[in-house]
Amino acid sequence: MTDKMEWQGQVGSSWARQWQRTDRSFVPLTTQLVGRILDVGNGQRIVDIGCGAGELSIRIADARPDSDVLGIDISADLIAAASERAADRANLKFAVADASNWCDASFIPDLYVSRHGVMFFDDPVAAFTNLANSAAGGARMIFSCFRAPSENAWATQIAALVPSAPPADPHAPGPFAFADPERVKGILSEAGWGDIAFEPVDFDYVAGEGEDPVTDALDFFGHIGPAARAIKMLEGETRNTFLGRLRDLAEAHLRDGAVRFAAAAWIVTAKL
Ligand SMILES: C[S@@+](CC[C@H](N)C(=O)[O-])C[C@H]1O[C@@H](n2cnc3c(N)ncnc32)[C@H](O)[C@@H]1O
User: How many Å is the maximal CA-CA distance in the chain?
Assistant: First the structure.
């Protein structure tokens, strides 16, 4: 579970410091997502929901100079990182805003996009209803989210190393809250969205590379995701054992000069 307060606080700050690595872990997914976004007719005004450090917004703004792109996120640190990266682009802006209540009469989007930024809403029906009410008629939405944990080795294999981890609520705001297409379809339909479709995308989640990919992966895991949370909570010998097992896991996934884990996402499309 990762809730709004965590994103506004320490989790958002960690992502803001680690954006080169989080972008790297999503490279193949980003490419697929951008391809589909460029294929849709809509896109005069585009809002990137939960834009984080801005990679998707920047890629789209560059590929669609005729469009205006706005990236919104609840983390001030991530919006600061995104704004710094994108400073010189006339068709791209970022704003600290909560998708659950964001609305801008001077910027009515005809396309919403998101790379893994929509699974963290406390009340997803209310948030997607607000997004529907804030958009132009006929607006479209294209977002990615993780499929089930069992198809995402990086998450299940790390979780398996954490001693006495409590069972996670599959619907709590977090990386896997949108894994079940039936649930997501229900949420989007109730919020007024139609033509809902799911396309599976499998990709290599790169956790470490460079001169010493294993150490790079361990440093990444120390800041982002389930291992970072565990490292903070564990102490003494238990912590050392966990770190040793994490290293073994990273070594077991070293392939072609990088630490790679199987990852599985949905690309979800919908229309008003
Ligand atoms: C997994 S990160 C993805 C960030 C970015 N899209 C990327 O791909 O790097 C999820 C993002 O959603 C943002 N977020 C969570 N709840 C939000 C909300 N209610 N409104 C706007 N952004 C939100 C978080 O702050 C975080 O940046």
Answer: 58
- Three-class secondary structure of residue 162 per DSSP: coil
Cβ(75) – ligand 1 distance below 6 Å: yes
Instruction: Evaluate the CA torsion angle 224, 225, 229, 231 in order and state its sign.
Output: negative
User: Hey, what CATH topology would domain 4-149+168-206+264-271 get?
Assistant: Rossmann fold (3.40.50)
CA distance 34 to 24: 15
Q: What is d(CA 259, CA 246) in angstroms, rounded to the nearest whole number?
A: 12
Write down the pTM of the prediction: 0.94
Domain borders along the chain are: 4-149+168-206+264-271
Q: How confident is the model at residue 165 (pLDDT cuts 50, 70, 90)?
A: low
> From the CB of 112, is ligand 1 less than 6 Å away?
no
Average the pLDDT over 21-39 and give the result.
Answer: 93
Q: Which residue's structure tokens are 């997501």? A: 184
Q: Is 169 helix (H, G, I), strand (E, B) or coil?
A: coil
Decide whether any atom of ligand 1 lies within 6 Å of the 117 Cβ. Answer: yes
